[in-house]
Amino acid sequence: MAAAYSSSPQHRSHQGERDRLPSQAADLFALGQLATEPLCQRLASSPAGLSGEEAARRLQDFGLNLVAREHKPTILEGIWGRARDPLNALLLTLAAVSYFIGDMRAAIVIVLIVLLAVGTSFVQEHRSNEAAARLRAMVKTTVSVRRRPAVGDGDFVEVPIESLVPGDRRLS
How many CA atoms lie less than 13 Å away from 94 in the CB half-sphere? Predict the structure, then answer.
C-alpha cells in the first residue's frame, strides 16, 4: 500500500504545517507497520486494489502526489547568498583599509576580485540549477498499482507517480 501526501496548495495549510509534520510521520510509520488486511480497512481499500473510479475520486479529493520543491531564489537572493561569504567580508575589509591608507589601486583590485568571484559563483550555480531542473523535467517516474474492474481482482497498471493516491496497492 502507498500513502500519498499531497503538497498541492489547495490541500495544504501553511499555518501550523510544521507542527503537523511529526504527527504525519508518526501516522505514516504506524500505517507501514500494519498487516495488509487492517491497512486496507484503514485506507478503505482492498488487496485487489482500488477501482479506477475510486482512484479518480481520491485524486480529486487529495490532489496530485507531488514532492514539495524548495523555493527558487530570485536573482538578487542568489547574488546575496554568494556575497555573504566570510572570505568576501574579509577581502572587502582589506579593500576598505587599503582605501583609507591611500592605496587606491589595491582597494580597486580587491573589490574587482570580490565582484568577479561573486559573479562567477552566481553564474555557475544558476547554470547548474537550470541543468538540474531540465533533468528533473526529463525524468518521468511511474509506479505499478493494482486497479480493479467493477468485479474481481485487477491487473497492475503503470500510472504516473503524481496519480498515486492513498489506498493504491503497489507492485511489491
Answer: 15
